[in-house]
């Protein structure tokens, strides 16, 4: 594994500070399964990928198992041929990635599954802006739910996202104080949308892209 600037994840992992979150972007093939994730976590733990053990929490979120459990927290997401991996200490990151594509039913989906204020904001946009706006909302909501340790079964309507597209803000989350949450729109490219979320103080986001396969 090597980054586009010639460094390895292991070299960069050694510099993971308590006030940072590391985000990795990499090429992905669904036939790889969790292999890229295990390889990345191995780089942070200083062990072979085969020695990284995972277990599922109550709602399915994967976490490190055994003696590795409290050393790192992580989350990952993949869409088509790309993946994102977020790694941190002391907070549970949630990350979501989507490839931009046409969503002709974006407004009906928003009316059914999003909060009323979100669906109204989406409807107010020009039609050519709705696909990106829909996925920006979707990835932000997914990232929060993943950081919460819950899945879509929690209910997309139970939280709402406000703010500018590049500065999303958690406006409402049932049962939780929103001022304790951070959202960060990830800068990717014109074909992908990604969002990072966590509960806790603001952190510095360090982001890299792997130059080749894991």
Note the topology.
Layout: H1 9-13, E1 20-27, H2 35-45, E2 54-56, E3 62-64, E4 73-79, E5 82-88, E6 94-99, H3 106-113, H4 116-124, H5 130-148, E7 159-164, E8 167-173, E9 181-189, E10 192-199, E11 204-209
Parallel strand pairs: 1-11
Antiparallel strand pairs: 1-5, 2-3, 4-5, 6-10, 7-8, 9-10
Helix pairs in contact: 3-4
What does this structure look like?
This protein has one domain (9-209): Alpha-Beta Complex (Ribosomal Protein L22, Chain A), CATH 3.90.470. The protein is α+β, with helices and mostly antiparallel strands and 214 residues long. It is 24% helix and 33% strand. A hairpin with a 2-residue loop joins strand 7 and strand 8. This is 4'-phosphopantetheinyl transferase superfamily protein. Residues 94-192 form the 4'-phosphopantetheinyl transferase domain. One of its GO terms (cellular component) is cytosol.
